[in-house]
Amino acid sequence: MSTQGTVHVVDDDPAIRNALTASLELRGLVVENYESAEDFLRSYQDNKIGCLVLDISMSGINGLELQEILAEKNHNIPIIFVSGHGDVPMSVQALKNGAIDFLEKPYRQEILHDRIEQALDQSKILRQKSAELASYNERINRLSPREKQVLAMLATDNANTSNKKIAEALDISHRTVEDHRAKIMLKMQANSLYELITMVKSASSVQLKPQNT
What we know:
Layout: E1 6-10, H1 14-26, E2 30-34, H2 37-43, E3 50-55, H3 63-72, E4 79-83, H4 88-96, E5 101-104, H5 109-141, H6 145-156, H7 163-170, H8 174-188, H9 193-202
Parallel strand pairs: 1-2, 1-3, 3-4, 4-5
Helix pairs in contact: 6-8, 6-9, 7-8
């Protein structure tokens, strides 16, 4: 496997769960297994690279319901569904909701291993993106209220990107706008206006208000 991470196996059949765990561990993967969706939810912490191999038909919370719960909690763990029944509507729903794949038992181990590698690679990318966005948000939060106003105008209205128009809109001097822009570029660690705007648009959780204070 090119990407290291944890494979979470959720299956209420102990024979299948233990056999799959042993197979994956032989490939050098870290595996945690659970006998139910409830057990997984009690233990899972969304802070590491990982993927979920999930039985779709289980007592209690089933696989599709667990997928929905994880989405509601904003846990973006890649999911590979496995099922002993060829249920087309369920497979369509699982894939529509973002699953990596839907494999019918008995499946070829090589196919599952390939899907797991794909899922772990995806998890790594998601983790990197999440860390990047958190960094952008942290930088924005370090800006002063006035710097946030200037940044908002730069990011949301191309017609107001000139220093003159920003100065007029905020009733401040041209030189003050220049000073704010320089500080913004420094605090945001941006090398260009394009890079700065890309950061702000990516960090959608941060609300910037361009109006006067």
